[in-house]
Design goal:
The structure holds two protein chains of two kinds. By secondary structure, chain A is α+β, with helices and mostly antiparallel strands. Chain A has 15 helices and 26 strands. In chain A, strands 1, 2, 3, 4, 10 and 11 form a six-stranded mixed beta sheet that branches. In chain A, strands 17-12-13-14-18 form a five-stranded mixed beta sheet, with helices on both faces. In chain A, strand 15 and strand 16 form a beta hairpin. Chain B is mainly α. Chain B is globular and about 60 Å long.
């Protein structure tokens, strides 16, 4: 990211798109209006999402780490994505695998930790950061200067998993332009490349997650109608099912399974799965064991329960979108597992349509992420293309009787906000316990607990008199912020929801410092470099705004803005990040009124851009938006 | 601002959803945070607030229950803690309890057919409640509509549970 700029100020930073996958990861960028994946020196674009920690402190990523896996089964972490934002007591952590999990001590956050060589303990966030760092280096080899990144996440990732991904990027020194849902990215890659319009379903069966998304492509807007899936279901499960079958055939029971054996059998299972895409039967040859013959039919029987789970999610996504299966114009396949013939047959059956696969299902997500990065920060900025994404799961809070009160329903378009008001159940209750939940079920126990926090210091009142207003806000990355306020006293509290299974800010900061070669020094340099980039961006945006909408300036406003720009310009050549930040804020204050007027003009244009018949009918109401907008800005 | 004004559409229960969707899309095109990545902080903040408002309006308008609540609010009828304040008839509550019991009975043995039959029955009831709301709003009614609205909420919860059960069955 920006550090590089200090050394090479001439190369303009290029935004990149990253698919941080369970099995493989890759990075792409847009060149001459077309997204391309970055290959390493061996002409490979896929970087296995595998990290090996060696006793001498070295960290190895990718294909080399994969080769080290048999030798260092416990020190080689693969599929770290499956553990992102998960607790150490989560079902996922006790599944078939060779890892040495560290139990959290009292007072420590309940985060998954792996014990690796050299008595190091690492979290999935740090493992992912190593992969992101390797991808960044690979991109830098080709682009010299890498700008911000769009990083994809499964649409079905919950809040903790998204936050963990963002933390990993921060530790890797990447500026995150946006977290983008993988299926949406795939649609973007297809939509732009093929200039299609219509209703599409994206069936994304990755290494560790399954997502299905229904979206409408219309005049450049990609609007997600519904999304669903399972963040704990993927190609890895097929490997496991097959590995368990091989272990059974070899006569092992669970007591006799060493980490090395499990690792070798899983490797053989993966190879067999790949081979069965073309062959009718294969022989799994686990070193030191008898060969095991697996037929394609047997494999298909083993994976059928997994496919049925994807089918249920597909039907629900269709139901949520208000569509019958036959109404889909095209089905886009994403993820290596969609190469399996049985998967394609199953998809064709569920959607009553042969799926599309003209873009490599392993690359399509990264290519779409590159397109989005280019739209956000590259030369490709244009006004005719837009993604409208949704939240995958409903959000609510616990109310009396262990019932969930849903505040934001699933498939709400983001960014969004909603509030609800509650009252006290008991006389003289001076605090509220707020329990934030994610999921679709009525009862608290059936949903995922995101966070608990409390609001204290409310004066004693009879039951039913206190009025607690809870506001949920979701930003464009799909991250949740919760605010609780008692309306009689105005006592309030805001939380960035992450504690349940996440790392706190201090822990991320520590990892960030650890990750830099010279710790604190580099951190300071990085902060000032980041502030400079931000300042230049804002100066550019301000100049552009003044040039296009000069007529909106009020008396004397222009001089104020120019003077604030000048001060910021001076701060950029100085050495204080705090000074730059302060000047950015000052410029922000100077441009506030102007920005509000520009926004109203944008709204006016948007409504004016609708079809004529719509405009005629609604132009009167549209004016109401403008008038009120002006009013609220002036406040 | 009320959601109908935000989208610039007439405040009625019988909304033309395709028109509302198109307006939502056009406003999003102008206001989405992606349009303001490189913009000044104040522009980003204002755009975000507006985008949130437009999305909230669309979410309200496209859902019959939220739409009815918004219309009632416009007519000065408080729907704040709605469900608890409306006294539903004992006959209705009795029926709902019976439906719930029937759903539990069908769920335990995994009787997908019985669950489906119950769902169709409740969907028909929900449609009748929506019809009642539609006529009521046309006739300028206010607080009288709290009853069909509360009933619709019951049906919605029931159907949500059916959806969850059907998902469980499929696995």
């Amino acid at each position: 990211m920006t550090l590089f700029e200090i050394f090479d100020p001439k190369a303009a930073p290029r935004p990149i798109g990253i698919d941080l996958g369970t099995t493989n990861s890759l990075v792409a960028y847009v060149s001459n209006e077309r997204p391309v994946a970055v290959a390493d020196c061996d002409q490979q674009v896929l970087v296995p999402s595998v990290v090996t920690y060696l006793a001498n402190g070295d960290v190895v990523v990718g294909r080399r780490a994969q080769k080290l896996a048999p030798e260092y089964p416990r020190d080689t972490i693969s599929s770290a994505k499956r553990y992102m934002g998960r607790g150490s007591d989560d079902a996922e952590t006790s599944r078939l695998g060779p890892y040495d999990f560290v139990q959290p001590e009292a007072g420590e956050g309940n985060v998954v930790r792996f014990r690796v060589a050299g008595d190091r303990v690492v979290t999935p966030v740090e493992v992912s950061a190593e992969i992101l760092r390797a991808l960044k280096v690979q991109a830098e080899d080709e682009l010299r200067n890498v700008g911000g990144a769009v990083i994809t996440v499964p649409a079905y990732f919950d809040d903790a998993q998204r936050q963990a991904t963002k933390d990993a990027a921060r530790i890797a020194g990447l500026e995150v332009l946006r977290l983008l849902n993988e299926p949406t990215a795939a649609a973007l890659a297809y939509g732009l490349e093929k200039n299609r319009s219509g209703t599409f379903a994206v069936y994304d069966l990755g290494g560790g997650t399954f997502d299905v998304t229904v979206l409408v492509l219309d005049s450049g807007v990609f609007q997600v109608r519904s999304t669903g899936g399972d963040s704990q279901l993927g190609g890895d499960d097929m490997d496991r099912a097959l590995a368990e079958e091989i272990l059974r055939s070899l006569g092992f029971d669970s007591g006799q399974q060493t980490p090395l054996l499990v690792r070798m059998v899983l490797d053989e299972a993966r190879k067999a799965k790949h081979a069965l895409t073309l062959a009718d039967s294969v022989v799994a040859d686990v070193p030191g064991q008898a060969p095991v013959v697996i037929s394609r039919a047997r494999f298909e029987t083993l994976i059928q329960p997994l496919l049925n789970r994807t089918g249920a999610a597909c039907r629900r996504a269709l139901r949520d979108a208000g569509l019958a299966p036959g109404k889909i114009d095209g089905v886009i396949l994403v993820g290596g597992a969609t190469r399996i013939p049985a998967v394609r047959r199953y998809v064709a059956e569920v959607f009553q349509k042969e799926p599309l696969a003209d873009i490599d299902p392993d690359e399509v997500v990264a290519l779409g992420a590159a397109v989005q990065a280019d739209l956000l920060a590259g030369d490709g900025r244009r006004d005719d293309i837009l993604l409208l994404d949704v939240i995958p799961l409903s959000l609510g809070i616990e109310v009396g009787g262990g019932v969930v009160d849903r505040i934001l329903p699933r498939n709400s378009t983001i960014p969004c906000a909603a509030r609800a008001t509650y009252t006290t159940q008991e006389d003289n209750q001076t605090g509220f316990e707020i329990h934030v939940l994610q999921g679709e079920r009525e009862m608290v126990a059936d949903n995922r607990s995101l966070a608990r926090f409390s609001l204290h210091g409310i004066p004693p009142m009879p039951a039913g008199l206190a009025r607690l207003e809870v506001t949920f806000r979701i930003d464009a990355d799909g991250l949740l912020h919760v605010q609780a306020k008692e309306l009689n006293t105005n006592i309030e509290q805001t939380v960035r929801v992450k504690p349940s299974y996440g790392l706190d800010d201090a822990a991320v900061e520590r990892m960030l410092v650890d990750a830099l070669d010279h710790g604190e020094d580099d951190l300071g340099r990085r902060q000032i470099a980041e502030a400079r980039v931000e300042a230049k961006r804002i100066l550019g945006a301000t100049a552009k705004g003044l040039a296009t909408d000069a007529d909106l300036l009020e008396e004397g406003e222009s001089a104020q803005i120019e003077s604030a720009c000048e001060s910021l310009g001076k701060a950029i050549s100085g050495q204080s990040a705090a000074e730059i930040r302060a000047r950015i804020e000052a410029l922000d204050r100077a441009t506030q009124g102007f920005a509000g007027r520009r926004m109203n003009r944008a709204i006016g244009r948007a409504i004016g851009g609708s079809r004529v018949d719509v405009v005629e009918e609604h132009v009167k109401h549209a004016k109401g938006v403008l008038a009120d907008g002006r009013h609220s800005v002036a406040e | 601002m009320d959601p109908f004004s935000t989208l610039g559409i007439p405040a009625t229960f019988d909304v033309d959803l395709s028109v509302a969707e198109r307006i939502h899309r056009d406003l999003s095109r102008a206001l989405h945070p992606d349009r303001y990545v490189g913009a000044s902080v104040s522009e980003r903040r204002i755009a975000l607030a507006k985008a949130v408002e437009v999305n909230e309006a669309w979410r309200t308008v496209r859902d019959p229950i939220r739409r009815a609540e918004a219309l009632l609010a416009l007519r000065g009828v408080s729907v704040g803690d709605g469900a608890s304040q409306v006294s539903l008839s004992p006959a209705f509550l009795m029926q709902m309890i019976e439906l719930r019991e029937a759903l539990a009975d069908a769920r335990a043995p995994g009787d997908a057919g019985a669950v489906h039959t119950l769902a169709s029955d409740v969907e028909a009831r929900a449609r009748r409640s929506e019809g009642e709301l539609s006529c009521g709003f046309k006739d300028g009614k206010g607080s009288e509509l709290l009853t069909p609205l509360a009933e619709l909420r019951f049906y919605r919860r029931f159907l949500d549970e059916v959806g969850a059960i059907e998902d469980d069955f499929a696995i």
